[in-house]
Automatic annotation (TrEMBL):
It holds the Pfam family GAF_3. Keywords: Hydrolase. PANTHER family: STAGE II SPORULATION PROTEIN E, STAGE II SPORULATION PROTEIN E-RELATED. GO terms for molecular function: phosphatase activity. Residues 171-389 form the PPM-type phosphatase domain. This is PPM-type phosphatase domain-containing protein.
Length: 390
C-alpha cells in the first residue's frame, strides 16, 4: 500500500518522461533495486526502454527469443538471472491495459524477497497501475510516443493512428485483436470497434489510393461511421450515412468496408460488406467457409445501385473466430510475384489457434509472417482483425 500511495502522490504533476523516476521511487518501497518500463514498438518487434527526463535511452530488447518478450507474449511474469550475477536477477512483468499489451516492467532484484509470491503479486499490481498511467498520460506529452517509434512515422500514418482504438479489446464473451501495416507508412487502411450493451460493433476500412489523400478519406469514413453508430442508427442506415458523406466530400473516390455487429449474448453476427473481401469463419481451429460478400457497393458509390444494402447474417458457435482483412494481406507478393494468398493466411492463423495463443499474439505472428513473405516491404496497406466469440 505504501508503494501505491507513493505512486499516486508522485503522479499528480508528473510528465510522461517522469515515469522512470516514479518507478525508481516505488522500487525502493517494494524492495527492488530498480524498476524499468519498456514499451512495445508499433511493429511489435522490440520492447523499448522509456528514458527519464534528460536520460539516455537504454538498449531495446527483441520480443522473439528473449525473456522479456516471453513475458510480453504470454502475459505472465518471467524470471531471469540470479542475485549474484553481474546484472542481478530480473523479473519481467507484462504491462497490459485491459487486453491491450503496452510493454513490460523489469524489476531488478538485489536479494531474494522474504515472500516471493507476495512480491510478484505486488509487481503485477504495479504493472497494472502503470498500464493505466501509460494509457492516460500518452496524450499529455510526446515522450511515450517517441519511445515507441523505431522509425520516423509518415504523416499519413500519423493521421490514421490518431483515429484508431487500441489494437486489442476483450469483454466477457468476445475479443477483438487487430494489426495494421506498414505501421509507419500506412495510408488508407483502418479498423474500429465499440461495445454497447450486448452488441460488439466492428469495422474494417480500405480507402482507394495511398498517402495523405487516402488517410484523410479513411478518417472521414471512420468519423462518419462513429457518428452514425453514436446516433443509434442501425447497420443499413449507418452504411447509407457513411456512403453519403464519402460521396459528398470525395465524389471521385470510394472506400471498401465491412460494417459488422456481434450480439455477444447469442452469437448472432450481422454485417454489410461494402465491396470488401469476405470474412473467414474459423471453427475448431479450421476454416469452415467464407461469409457472403460483397452485399453492397463500396462507400461513396452507393448512389450507383440499390440504396438499401443487404445485411448478411451468420450464427456463430462458441469458440468461433471471424477474420476480417483488407486485400493488401492476401495480395502481398514476393519479388517473383508469388502472392501471400488465402491459404497462407488461414495456415498462419490456424497454427496459432492450435498453439492456443491469445488473439493479440495470433495477430502479431500473422503480421511477422506477412512481412517475412514480402521481405519487410509491403507494396500495399495490410490490415486484419480477428473477432472471437466464446
Amino acid at each position: 500500500m505504501q508503494a501505491v500511495h507513493n505512486l499516486v502522490d508522485a503522479l499528480h504533476h508528473a510528465r510522461p518522461e517522469d515515469l522512470p523516476a516514479v518507478a525508481s521511487k516505488v522500487a525502493a518501497v517494494l524492495g527492488a533495486v530498480d524498476i524499468e518500463l519498456y514499451l512495445v514498438d508499433y511493429g511489435q518487434v522490440e520492447l523499448l526502454p522509456l528514458a527519464g527526463a534528460g536520460g539516455v535511452p537504454g538498449e531495446p530488447v527483441r520480443i522473439d527469443g528473449t525473456l522479456a518478450g516471453r513475458a510480453y507474449t504470454s502475459g505472465e511474469p518471467v524470471r531471469g538471472g540470479t542475485p549474484d550475477a553481474p546484472d542481478g536477477e530480473r523479473i519481467w512483468v507484462p504491462v497490459v491495459s485491459g487486453a491491450d499489451r503496452l510493454g513490460v516492467l523489469a524489476a531488478h532484484l538485489g536479494t531474494l524477497p522474504d515472500d516471493d509470491a507476495a512480491f510478484v503479486r505486488d509487481l503485477r499490481a504495479l504493472a497494472a497501475a502503470f498500464a493505466g498511467i501509460v494509457a492516460t498520460r500518452r496524450t499529455y506529452g510526446d515522450a511515450l510516443e517517441r519511445t515507441r517509434r523505431r522509425l520516423p512515422m509518415q504523416l499519413a500514418a500519423e493521421i490514421i493512428w490518431n483515429q484508431l482504438p487500441p489494437l486489442t479489446f476483450a469483454t466477457p464473451g468476445a475479443a477483438v485483436a487487430a494489426i495494421l501495416e506498414p505501421c509507419y507508412d500506412v495510408g488508407g487502411d483502418a479498423f474500429d470497434y465499440a461495445i454497447n450493451g450486448s452488441v460488439l460493433h466492428v469495422a474494417v476500412f480500405d480507402a482507394v489510393g495511398h498517402g495523405i489523400a487516402a488517410s484523410a478519406l479513411t478518417s472521414l469514413a471512420i468519423s462518419a461511421y462513429r457518428n452514425a453508430r453514436r446516433c443509434g442508427l442501425d447497420l443499413v442506415d449507418s452504411y447509407r450515412s457513411v456512403d453519403k458523406w464519402v460521396h459528398a466530400q470525395y465524389p471521385e473516390d470510394y472506400v471498401t468496408a465491412i460494417l459488422g455487429e456481434l450480439d455477444i449474448s447469442t452469437g448472432a453476427y450481422r454485417k454489410i460488406s461494402a465491396g470488401h473481401p469476405e470474412e473467414l469463419l474459423l471453427r475448431g481451429g479450421r476454416l469452415v467457409r467464407t461469409l457472403p460478400g460483397p452485399t453492397a457497393l463500396p462507400l461513396g458509390l452507393g448512389y450507383l445501385g440499390d440504396p438499401m444494402p443487404i445485411v448478411a447474417e451468420e450464427r456463430l458457435e462458441p469458440g468461433d473466430a471471424l477474420l476480417l482483412y483488407t486485400d493488401g494481406v492476401v495480395e502481398a507478393r514476393t519479388e517473383d510475384g508469388e502472392q501471400f494468398g488465402i491459404d497462407r493466411l488461414v495456415d498462419c492463423v490456424t497454427k496459432a489457434l492450435a498453439d492456443q495463443l491469445q488473439p493479440a499474439e495470433t495477430m502479431r505472428r500473422l503480421v511477422r509472417t506477412l512481412l517475412t513473405h514480402q521481405q519487410d516491404q509491403l507494396q500495399d496497406d495490410a490490415t486484419a482483425l480477428m473477432l472471437t466469440w466464446s
